[in-house]
Amino acid sequence: MRFGREGFRATSVADIARDAGVGGTVAYTYFADKEALFLAALDEDAAAVIHEALSSVFEEPGVLDWRQTLLFTLVGAVEGHPLARRLLAGLEPEVTARVLEIPALTELRKACAERLRAEQLEGTVRRDIDPVSTGNGIVAIMLALLMSVVQLGTEAAGPYRADVAAVFEAALAPAVKP
What we know:
By secondary structure, this protein is mainly α. The protein contains 11 helices and no strands. The chain has one domain: Tetracycline Repressor, domain 2.
């Protein structure tokens, strides 16, 4: 995809139309402007990354530490999605803030909240936390970590893997009664 290779600024709607084999104004039938087209392309790329990660975590029974598994699966999935990687690398500062509300991230937040709610019912996660706000927080932390890993490399994040897992465990584990 051209946005992933060349970025928002260097890509024109005419370039995309040419790549798709359609007329230069066809894109405007579906998208208000170049930014809307970019955000739609980004949502599709991000949705593919998230789907890869969610399917490996939530569709496989018995994943004990789903938060850590989800994070590291997302890191691996980003490698194959140049537009998502480009955004996480900080190469699209004009649109980064707007990306936080793309539908793919909304679905990830919802999936995390549902998993937390199920774990509360099982007694493996504290009952006094709000699963929606905690799920939102988990996604925010994961995005920050993904950005760090993409920008600094996996080697830089490696030494902190156990610390990240410990934070998730400590924040969510049910209180042990003496």
